[in-house]
Specification:
The chain is α+β, with helices and mostly antiparallel strands and 310 residues long. Helix content is 52%, strand content 12%. It has a 5-stranded mixed β-sheet with strand order 1-2-3-4-5, with helices on both faces. α9 links the parallel β3 and β4. It binds iron/sulfur cluster. The site of iron/sulfur cluster (SF4) has 13 residues, from α3 and α11. Iron/sulfur cluster binds at residues 55-56, 58, 60-61, 295-296, 299, 303, 305-306, 309-310.
């Protein structure tokens, strides 16, 4: 994404590798058939976020969704997550298509072109997600304003990255310039079924063909790291390319319209892989037992099922 400086990321990745070493072959996703990685039950496929988002330590959320078929209620934060994701994807796609369509240009020209598309894209995103059905009028206005703030921030980052990249290239070649400006695939679909994960997982971003990126729009939680572990295993199982790193990118638009981004970078080593697989197996156990696992001593109010259980 435009807000990743690959040189900076490279430096951090090298540090992580020197601290943590390498990944055991038996824990690579492509070894999905071994005793550690193969799913405990055939025919059930869970989403990575279902497994990773461990708001509930007793896994009652899994019981509710998968045994009792109680869908997770929508909240303002859920809708905001959809919108931010769609805006990030939309700006990346439009920046690429403008560059492919019109060729290399100055950053200011790209910025003007992207800004001209803003209202069209934001309206499309809101229509496609049926936002007006899920939030009240006041929240709708707030979300639209946040979406436009995020859009123009990303458009400006794209323009700046274009200028920076072109200023360093001796020979201007469209294909290699675009791959430096936007070194990510957005919403890459991968099949995680061999690991008991969903068949059409969408990885928010696959950067540089070696880093999975998960975008988060809420508060920082330690268990978010398991999302990038799950996607890394799925990419390895499906595409057979090693993924050693994950970035959880927290995006927030504050009340003044300033966009704040905080990236947490993880080395997806043996320990995290084993922890993710343990959580996956426990989720499968809850489904196989089909018995209410009960509530934890205290339910966090930000749990999506809070209103259902309490
Ligand atoms: S509200 Fe409590 S019991 Fe229900 S899913 Fe959330 S954490 Fe678990």
């Amino acid at each position: 994404m435009f807000f990743f400086e690959m040189l900076e990321i490279d430096r951090i990745l090298r540090q992580l590798r020197s601290m943590y070493g390498s990944v055991s072959e038996e824990l690579r996703g492509w070894n999905w058939s071994n005793d550690i990685l193969s799913p405990p039950l055939d025919g059930i496929c869970l989403g990575v976020s279902e497994i990773a988002n461990r708001y509930c330590s007793t896994y009652k959320d899994i019981y509710l969704r998968r045994v009792l078929s109680v869908p997770a209620p929508y909240s303002y934060k859920t809708v905001r997550g959809w919108i931010y994701h769609a805006i990030c994807k939309g700006v990346v796609e439009r920046a690429k298509s403008r560059l492919y369509g019109h060729g290399l240009m100055s950053g200011s020209k790209l910025y003007s072109m992207l800004l001209a598309d803003m209202h069209d894209l934001v309206s499309k995103v809101f229509d496609e997600h049926g936002v007006s059905r899920h939030v009240n009028e006041q929240d709708l206005r707030k979300l639209k304003w946040e979406a436009e703030s995020l859009y123009s921030f990303l458009a400006l980052q794209a323009a700046a990255k274009l200028d920076r990249t072109l200023s360093k290239m001796q020979k201007l070649d469209l294909e290699s310039a675009i791959s430096r400006i936007i070194p990510v695939d957005v919403e890459r679909t991968v099949n995680g079924q061999l690991l008991g994960l969903s068949g059409d997982l969408r990885v928010d971003m696959l950067a540089d063909k070696r880093i999975v990126v998960e975008i988060k729009t809420g508060d920082l939680r330690d268990f978010h790291k398991y999302s990038v572990v799950g996607y890394a295993l799925a990419v390895e199982a499906d595409l057979e390319i090693p993924i050693d790193y994950g970035i959880v990118s927290y995006i927030h638009v504050d009340e003044n319209g300033y966009v704040k981004i905080r990236n947490k970078i993880y080395f997806i080593g043996d320990e995290l892989r084993r922890e993710f697989i343990e959580i996956r197996d426990e989720a499968f156990n809850v489904i196989m037992r089909g018995v209410d696992p009960g509530k934890p001593p205290q339910c966090p109010e930000y749990c999506i099922y809070y209103g259902v259980c309490n």
